[in-house]
Specification:
This protein has a domain of 185 residues: 3-Layer(aba) Sandwich (Rossmann fold), CATH 3.40.50. The chain contains 7 helices and 13 strands.
Length: 314
C-alpha cells in the first residue's frame, strides 16, 4: 500500500473473538465511516441497472420461463447439515394504503456445503428480499432461518452483525463500496473488522483483486472506477473472509460477457473448492443453468425451474 493511501484502522472497542467490534468507526486520516456500512441492506428489490446484451446471448426474459412446476421440498443429503436453511419463511411489508404486501409466502430451502442454487423469477418477485432474509440482513415476518443449524431467531443486532461478518459474503446489485477508500482498502475492510492482521488482510485483498482482473487498480477509489470495475471490487470484498455462505444478487449485471464469465468461474470455484453454499439470483438463464439446482420464485414460493433450462449448456 502506498504512503498516500494509509492503512485503514479500526477506532473504538477492540474486536471480540468473533472479529467484529460492536461499536466504532473506520478512518484513514479523513472522514470517519460507520462500520455498519458494509452490512447495510439496500431497499428490497430495488430497481436494477440494465446491462447491455448482444443478440446472440441466451434469451433471459421471464416470459420464457415455464409456470408449471411443483413446490420445492428441500431434502438435505443424509448426515449433511445445511449451511443455510429456511422453513416456512414469510416476509410481508406494509403498503402505502396500510395493507400488508406479502413477498415471501412460506419459503422452504436447504443449501448444503459446496452447493450452488440459482433463483430466477420476474422483477419484483422477492428474489432480493429472499437473499436479505437468508443473510440475516432482514428478519422474516414468520418462519425460521438457520445458519449451520443455529436459528437466527432471538439473536440481537450485535450477534447478527458478528454472524454476517464471520459467515456470509454478499454481492449486491449496486456495489455499496465505501467511497472514501481505495479498492484495496474496501476488500481489506471485512477482514480488519473481523480482527485479521493488516498484513494478512492486504495479501488476501491483493490476491482477490488480481483474481477479478483489477491488479492495476488497487489504489483507485470507487469514483475512479467504472461500474463494472466497482462490481468486481464488490465480488472480491464478498470473498475476503472466505464465507460459508455466498449470496449474489445479479453479480455480473454491469459486465461484458467475457469479464462476466471470468467472474462466474471464480464464484463457482469458491463454491466448489472452499465448500461455500451459494445462492445466486439472476435473470441470465445460461448463468442459472451452471448451478446444481435452479429454482424460481413465484407468488412467494420457490418452485423448480429445471424445465425452463432444458437444452441450455450447463
Amino acid at each position: 500500500m502506498s504512503s498516500r493511501d494509509p492503512m485503514p484502522r479500526v477506532e473504538g472497542p477492540t474486536p471480540g473473538l468473533d472479529g467484529v467490534a460492536s461499536e466504532g468507526t473506520l478512518s484513514v486520516d479523513g472522514p470517519s465511516v460507520d462500520t455498519t456500512l458494509p452490512l447495510a441492506a439496500p431497499s428490497p428489490d430495488a430497481a436494477r441497472s440494465v446491462g447491455t446484451r448482444s443478440m446472440d446471448e441466451v434469451r433471459t426474459d421471464d416470459a420464457a420461463i415455464s409456470a408449471d412446476a411443483a413446490y420445492v421440498q428441500p431434502v438435505p443429503s443424509a448426515g449433511v447439515t445445511p449451511v443455510v436453511s429456511a422453513r416456512g419463511v414469510h416476509k410481508a411489508y406494509m403498503g402505502g394504503d396500510g395493507q400488508p404486501i406479502t413477498v415471501l409466502d412460506g419459503v422452504d430451502l436447504d443449501v448444503a456445503p459446496g452447493e450452488a442454487v440459482s433463483v430466477i423469477g420476474q422483477s419484483g418477485s422477492g428474489k432480493s428480499t429472499l437473499l436479505h432474509v437468508l443473510g440475516a440482513l432482514d428478519l422474516p415476518t414468520a418462519g425460521e432461518v438457520r445458519v449451520s443449524g443455529k436459528p437466527l431467531a432471538g439473536m440481537d443486532e450485535e450477534a447478527l452483525a458478528r454472524l454476517r461478518c464471520g459467515t456470509t459474503g454478499f454481492v449486491f446489485q449496486f456495489h455499496h463500496l465505501l467511497r472514501e477508500f481505495t479498492a484495496l482498502e474496501n476488500v481489506m475492510m471485512p477482514q480488519l473488522i473481523r480482527g485479521d492482521a493488516p498484513r494478512a488482510a492486504t495479501d488476501r485483498a491483493r490476491e482477490l483483486l488480481a483474481a477479478v482482473g483489477l491488479e492495476s487498480r488497487l489504489h483507485h477509489k470507487p469514483s475512479q472506477l467504472s461500474g463494472g470495475e466497482q462490481q468486481r471490487v464488490a465480488v472480491a470484498r464478498a470473498l475476503a473472509n472466505r464465507p460459508l455462505i455466498l449470496l449474489a444478487d445479479e453479480p455480473s449485471g454491469n459486465l461484458d460477457p467475457q469479464t462476466g464469465t471470468r467472474l462466474h468461474d471464480l464464484l463457482f470455484r469458491v463454491c466448489r473448492d472452499e465448500g461455500a453454499a451459494m445462492v445466486l439470483v439472476t435473470h441470465d438463464l445460461a448463468l442459472a443453468a451452471r448451478a446444481d439446482r435452479v429454482l424460481r420464485l413465484q407468488e412467494g414460493h420457490l418452485v423448480s425451474a429445471a424445465e425452463s433450462l432444458r437444452g441450455l449448456p450447463a
